[in-house]
Design a protein that fits this description.
The protein is mainly alpha-helical. The chain has 20 helices and 4 strands. It has 2 domains: 344 residues, Up-down Bundle (Fumarase C, Chain A, domain 2), CATH 1.20.200; 59 residues. It has a two-stranded antiparallel ribbon with strand order 1-2. The longest helix has 37 residues.
Length: 458
């Protein structure tokens, strides 16, 4: 069921809303019930006829989300009314065997894992799309000179390829973390107290069959009170959202008219102001940033589950349900929006070069100071460069060079040609080319390893 909330579609996608909505949870809970019945039939706990009857009755379209949600108020979770409804729909051969030996948390935790796996696959695909866009930018603009900015101030020359490589590095790391957390999600089956006493000696065999049928990891024991799998997933989702916000935030800063080096993709009405015709607002960055901030807070609330009481928590478990769904939708929306931005990014290399050239002399003062240190000593070289910068009207290479040559101390220790080379932005890029190649190589390796195309759930 697609949410009808006025604000949801601003920060996420329709397919993620569907994948984390009520119908998706109902489908996942029914999948868990069917797998439970089949696993118990395979191990001789219940009759095969009962498992077949339960599977036949488990059609998501026959279960009304709103009705189950309202009924869930009485028992405190949606599994209780869902099981009651399922029993009503199951033929007589299977009625008594529905939900046999399980507890509500078994089904809802397993459903949470299935919903996470299915929507998580969509997020991984969009992270791959984001990485691909970053890789293209890193390679295409490896030599596109621009100003590196630290603490929001001009710092040194760099290239736009290096900036994009930084985005790619973060995206590749985020994707690996999310993939690992999703792959490590286990099935849940422990019965009322985590002992699975209801299944007698067949408990471990049922858990293994149940997990295998669902394509999930077999846990060493029930994890009702060990919430690390879902907390780890929540952390990975928040990191993916934060990475997306870093990328979109950089774009927004570079999009300011005073800088004007890149722009979000243009489209009719995109970024329009309700009152100022001249504005083109970075609305993608706004949506991604908002989603990422919410993800950070939601992930924090998931950490509370780690200290739940005894074998099953009173409050921590219910907090997870909607929180996890929101995290999946918001993080996925942030990634998808950033991927759209990067893959449609408008890059103005001329503006980058012009902005760099305007203050290149100042930005290369470190290079000049280091070169003069061997001849003048550290303190004298720093003082000479400081005097030249103070005397330079605009910080350009030409004005700084002139001020340096006007200083007799510097003029005696260097030549105009040497200073010209020292004040060339393209000559002071350090290991940028190496970093770009390393990140591109690592990203390519990660893509190759992922071509096995893991698909979770059914």
């Amino acid at each position: 069921m697609i949410s009808d909330n006025l604000f949801d579609r601003i920060v996420t996608t329709d397919r993620l809303l569907a994948a984390t909505g009520g119908e998706a949870w109902i489908t996942a809970m029914l999948d868990a019930e069917v797998a439970l019945a089949k696993a118990e039939a395979d191990t001789g706990v219940i009759p095969y006829e009962a498992a077949k009857a339960i599977e036949s009755a488990s059609r998501p379209k026959d279960f009304d989300v709103a009705t189950i949600a309202r009924a869930a108020r009485l028992g405190g979770n949606p599994v209780i009314p869902l099981v009651e409804t399922l029993r009503e729909k199951v033929a007589s051969a299977g009625k008594d065997w529905v939900h046999w030996g399980a507890t509500s948390q078994d089904i809802l935790d397993t459903a949470a894992v299935l919903v996470s796996r299915r929507s998580g696959q969509m997020i991984l695909e969009d992270l791959a799309r984001l990485a691909s866009g970053c890789a293209l930018m890193a390679d295409e603009h490896r030599g596109s000179l621009m100003t590196a900015r630290t603490l929001l101030q001009p710092a040194l020359p760099t290239t736009f390829g290096a900036k994009a490589a930084g985005w790619l590095f973060a995206t590749t790391e985020s994707r690996a973390m999310l993939a690992t957390s999703l792959e490590n999600l286990p099935a849940q089956l422990g019965g009322a107290g985590g002992t699975l006493a209801s299944l007698g000696s067949q408990g471990p065999a049922v858990v293994e069959a149940y997990s295998t049928l669902l394509g999930l990891k077999v846990p060493p024991m029930p994890w009702h009170a060990v919430r690390i799998p879902l907390v780890a997933l929540s952390s990975a989702l928040a990191i993916a959202a934060g990475t997306s916000a870093k990328i979109s935030g950089d774009v927004a800063l570079l999009m300011q008219p005073e800088v004007a080096e890149v722009s979000e993709p243009a489209a009719p009405g995109r970024g329009a102001s309700s009152t100022l015709p001249h504005k083109r607002n970075p609305v993608g960055a706004a949506a991604v940033g908002a989603a990422a901030r919410r993800c950070a807070a939601l992930a924090g609330s998931m950490f509370e589950s780690l200290s739940g009481e005894h074998e099953r928590s009173l409050v921590a478990w219910p907090v997870e349900w909607q929180t996890l769904g929101d995290l999946l939708a918001l993080a996925g929306g942030a990634v998808a929006r950033s991927a759209e931005t990067v893959n449609g990014l408008e890059v103005d290399v001329k503006a980058m070069n012009a902005n760099l050239a305007a203050r290149a002399g100042a930005l290369l003062s470190e290079n000049v100071s280091l070169a003069l240190t061997g001849r003048l000593g550290r303190e004298a070289s720093r003082a000479a460069v400081a005097r030249a910068l103070a005397a330079s009207p605009d910080g350009s290479s030409g004005s700084v060079a002139a001020a340096l040559l006007a200083d007799p101390v510097v003029a005696a220790a260097s030549t105009p040609d040497e200073l010209g080379d020292l004040l060339d932005p393209g000559g002071y890029l350090g290991s940028v080319a190496v970093w770009i190649d390393r990140v591109l190589s690592a990203a390519a390796d990660a893509t190759a390893q992922d071509e096995r195309g893991v698909q979770w759930g059914r």
